[in-house]
Design a protein that fits this description.
- The complex is a heterodimer of chains A (414) and B (343).
- By secondary structure, chain A is an alpha/beta fold.
- Chain A has a domain at 75-169 and 180-324: HUPs (Rossmann fold, 3-Layer(aba) Sandwich), CATH 3.40.50.
- Chain A contains 15 helices and twelve strands.
- Chain A has helices at 55-73, 90-104, 123-126, 133-142, 175-182, 186-207, 219-231, 238-242, 264-273, 296-310, 314-324, 349-363, 366-369, 374-382, 390-398, and strands spanning 27-28, 32-33, 40-41, 44-45, 80-86, 113-121, 147-152, 161-162, 212-214, 245-246, 254-256, 325-326.
- In chain A, strand 5, helix 2 and strand 6 form a beta-alpha-beta unit.
- Chain A is globular, with a radius of gyration of 23 Å.
- Chain A starts with 26 loop residues before the first strand and ends in a 16-residue tail after the last helix.
- Chain B is of the alpha/beta class and 343 residues long.
- Chain B folds into two domains: 47-275, 3-Layer(aba) Sandwich (Rossmann fold), CATH 3.40.50.620; 279-343, no CATH class.
- Chain B contains 13 helices and eleven strands.
- Chain B has helices at 26-43, 61-76, 96-110, 119-123, 127-134, 139-158, 169-182, 185-190, 214-223, 239-254, 258-268, 296-306, 316-342, and strands at residues 15-16, 23-24, 52-56, 82-89, 114-118, 162-164, 195-196, 205-206, 270-271, 281-282, 289-290.
- Chain B has a six-stranded mixed beta sheet with strand order 5-4-3-6-8-7, with helices on both faces.
- The longest helix of chain B is centred in the C-terminal third of the chain and has 27 residues, at 316-342.
- Chain B is globular.
- The chains are: A alpha/beta (414), B alpha/beta (343).
- The interface between A and B is large, with 59 and 56 residues.
- Chain B: Residues 282-311 form the Cytoplasmic tRNA 2-thiolation protein 1 C-terminal domain.
- Chain B: Keywords: ATP-binding, Cytoplasm, Nucleotide-binding, RNA-binding, Transferase, tRNA processing, tRNA-binding.
- Chain B: It holds the Pfam family ATP_bind_3.
- Chain B: Residues 52-230 form the tRNA(Ile)-lysidine/2-thiocytidine synthase N-terminal domain.
Chain lengths: 414, 343
């Protein structure tokens, strides 16, 4: 019997499996005066480091963060075609709601862009029950005139369907599913899946002629992402993983993270204020049910969450560190064929040391006798022209046979 | 079923290398471990022929293995180095006094001269007395800052060309994580460097064990039967670093290559042009390398001597206010004395 994840019930009991209460702590339900506008309200929202305020003032504050992220960077051209990625999480619903609100305002304040929504159906890959289509259809009516689309993770971009015409295709195993099963560790599977998801979103955006993609990552996601990227050996490109703008997507599609300045509490309050109903619980990403120690990603997520409890500024400090780093790239550099991050132009001593370790382990005591050029061998291995970065080679190495990193479906490479 | 050594030397494997996961026999492990350090030294040009190198020795596993391997490689590959041991006595009863005995044993075993410098003679304070003043929290700040400078002072005294420290791969990966958690970009820039300092006015420090895993260092010391001291410091360990350390150990259990991957990530990090860079200079008071004026060691020492041990802990403005308050009180008392004398 598989015992992975069982140890997690040791120290903290099953605390991680508990579902957060529906009402976020901190909302003062007794009537009171808003500290901002002075109006008496039946519900006051008290965020950390802010005074209690009424629903309207809170919503204005949270929505301003979204607008400010886009506005300050002047990153979204007027009338841009935007694709919003919906995954059913609380964050994605908040993003949908905020974008919808920003479009319904008067001309002066309106966010001038044309939005479409895509729901990436990953239940099959995750081994969970399919999503309730009716709920999605309700959402699409609620948020008219946004067009809602749906696509299965791992399928071809041309299998994209409008949500109103969507019919569930029979459950056949797809190529992505098989590839995932071939990878030995959950760490590699999660890393690979994250990349494949991004590729799929990029090709959907191209299919729908969208130039920009909105991703609903909030500050805690990005803090975790930064530490994860560092643990995976993706330090050179980590800046793009946590920046407002990520331009590594195929077909010149730009990925934006307009919720990056929002924190978990603000999301919970927004959900409560707007009576939104998340379709999935938080912490139900691929492989997370297997426990903290099952992968580097799970471990990092748990670490950040635990540290945040004892040191309240952990997330914001890590997140700010992410704001200070830049991508390590030169224009003439080639990119990794899998993750599109810049490849190393110069030989790294550390990577050479890793390869050298492998060579000397194989040579053992014979390394002085045979007079082999072990360093030359290590260099040769390092410079093999597979077009992959160090971290993606790590995924490749876990696959017993065959090249897999350039998936034929779900990735058009246009 | 017994497993054979990966190198096909014909022996049975006795251990699994934590770094690569290969099953090796003892002899092949020694050869691989030493060859890697030699490779690190030669590919990064850490030393030049004829140089005098101080090995920062604490008596712990890292510095003991470092001294052993440097002596061995110096003879095997004819580096032409003059090696000396340099130890700092922080004055921690029940910890450093015992570990210095180990260093003395190393001195005799490896036939290297040893120089011991104490906080007592350099600063007039032992760690025991400092802890008596500041308590159990923040005492590691004093110890760390003073030791860093004490090594510089010792190196100057011995007239060496560089100091070799026993920082291993785990230490460096842990420091990368900690600096990300603390948002310390200045340290993040330099913590993965194999050589730091060095210029006109400072003595460079090098880390020959940068790519050696802590687990392998312990294995090497164990199988080579090296004498080392393995007790934790009696004063409270640094709590925040402890989190980063525990996290790294957990990560290593999931994927052993993570240590090298984190070092690689740390090296690949670049910073936006808007991020402030520290300027390395010379402390106007003591003349040693510092990026602040006066250097941290001088501020901490001033705090101890003024009876304000918290002076160098926390914000600079807070320290300045403490000094101003004390000066004001002193002035008041002096005036009171004057008034008394008038009568």
């Amino acid at each position: 019997m598989c015992s992975i994840g069982e140890d997690d019930f040791g120290d903290e009991g099953a605390a991680h499996a508990m579902v957060a209460e529906s009402l976020p702590s901190g909302i003062v339900l007794s009537p009171g005066d808003c500290n901002k506008c002075g109006v008496t309200s039946s519900e006051l929202y008290k965020l950390n480091f802010r005074t209690a305020e009424c629903r309207d003032c809170f919503l204005a504050y949270a929505r301003h963060k979204f607008r400010a992220a886009l506005g300050a960077a002047k990153i979204l051209p007027r009338n841009a075609e935007v694709l919003l990625v919906l995954d059913g999480s609380a964050e994605s619903l908040v993003l949908l709601d905020m974008l919808h609100f920003a479009q319904t305002q008067n001309t002066f304040k309106r966010l001038h862009c044309n939005a479409r929504v895509v729901y990436v159906e990953d239940q099959q890959v995750q081994g969970r029950d399919p999503v309730d289509i009716e709920e999605l259809r309700n959402l699409s009516t609620q948020y008219e005139p946004f067009e809602f689309h749906m696509i299965k993770l791992g399928s071809l971009p041309n299998s994209l369907q409008r949500i109103k015409d969507y019919n569930t295709s029979p459950n056949k195993t797809n190529e992505l599913d098989q590839k995932l099963h071939k990878l030995r560790s959950l760490t590699a599977r999660q890393d690979y899946l994250q990349q494949q998801r991004k590729n799929l979103v990029a090709s959907v955006a191209q299919e729908l002629q969208c130039t920009h993609v909105f991703e609903p990552s909030i500050s805690v996601d990005l803090a975790t992402q930064l530490l994860t990227a560092i643990a995976l050996g993706r330090g050179g490109s980590a800046a793009l993983d946590v920046a407002l703008l990520d331009d590594r997507l195929a077909g010149d599609v730009k990925l934006l993270r307009p919720l990056k300045d929002l924190n978990e509490q603000e999301i919970q309050f927004y959900i409560h204020a707007q009576r939104l109903k998340p379709l999935i619980q938080s912490g139900s990403r691929y492989g997370q049910e297997r426990g903290q120690t099952a992968s580097l990603q799970n471990l990092t997520t748990a670490f950040v969450a635990n540290l945040q409890q004892n040191y309240a500024s952990t997330v914001s400090t890590v997140f700010r560190t992410g704001d200070k780093i830049a991508v390590n790239a030169h224009p003439e550099q080639t990119s990794c064929v899998h993750c599109q991050s810049s490849l190393d132009s110069t030989l790294s001593d550390t990577l050479l040391a890793i390869e050298y370790s492998r060579s000397v382990s194989e040579a053992g005591v014979g390394l002085y006798k045979n007079g082999e050029d072990l360093e030359g061998l290590a260099k040769k291995r390092l410079q093999s022209e597979d077009g992959l970065c160090h971290a993606c080679r790590g995924i490749q190495a876990e696959l017993e046979s065959g090249k897999f990193l350039v998936l034929t479906s779900g990735w058009s490479g246009k | 079923m017994p497993i054979n050594c990966k190198s096909q030397c014909g022996n049975r494997a006795t251990l699994k290398r934590p770094k690569t996961g290969d099953a090796l026999c003892k002899e092949c492990f020694f050869a691989a471990f030493e060859a890697e350090i030699h490779h690190t030294i030669s590919s990064s040009n850490l030393f030049r022929r004829g140089e005098k190198v101080a090995v920062a020795a604490s008596g712990g596993k890292d510095s003991t293995v470092l001294a052993h391997v440097l002596k061995l490689l110096n003879e095997r590959h004819d580096y032409g180095l003059e090696l000396v041991l340099l130890s700092i006595d922080e004055g921690i009863t029940g910890y450093r006094d015992d570990s210095l005995e180990t260093v003395k044993q190393n001195r005799d075993d490896y036939q290297m001269p040893l120089k011991i410098l104490s906080y007592e003679e350099l600063y007039g304070w032992t760690m025991d007395r400092i802890v008596g003043q500041i308590g159990r929290s923040n005492n590691c700040t004093f110890c760390g800052v003073f030791r860093r400078q004490a090594l510089d002072r010792g190196a100057k005294l011995l007239g060496v060309d560089s100091i070799a420290t026993g920082h291993n791969a785990d230490d460096i990966a842990e420091t990368v994580l900690m600096n990300v958690l603390r948002g310390d970009t200045a340290r993040l820039r330099r913590c993965t460097d194999i050589r730091t300092g060095g210029g006109e006015d400072s003595i460079p420090r090098v880390k020959p064990l940068k790519y050696s895993y802590e687990k392998e260092i312990v294995m090497y010391a164990h199988y080579k039967k090296l004498v080392y001291f393995s007790t934790e410091c009696v004063f409270a360990p640094n709590a925040y670093r402890g989190h980063a350390r525990a996290f790294l150990k957990d990560l290593e259990k999931v994927r052993p290559s993570v240590i090298m991957d984190i070092i690689y990530s740390g090296e690949q990090l670049r910073f936006k042009d808007t991020v402030k860079k520290p300027v390395r200079g010379i402390c106007t008071r003591c003349g040693f390398v510092s990026s602040q004026q006066p250097c941290k060691a001088c501020v901490l020492l001033e705090g101890l001597n003024r009876g304000l041990p918290k002076l160098g802990i926390g914000k600079k403005s807070k320290g300045e206010r403490m000094i101003a308050k004390q000066d004001q009180e002193l002035a008041l008392r002096e005036r009171a004395n004057l008034v008394k004398n008038d009568f």
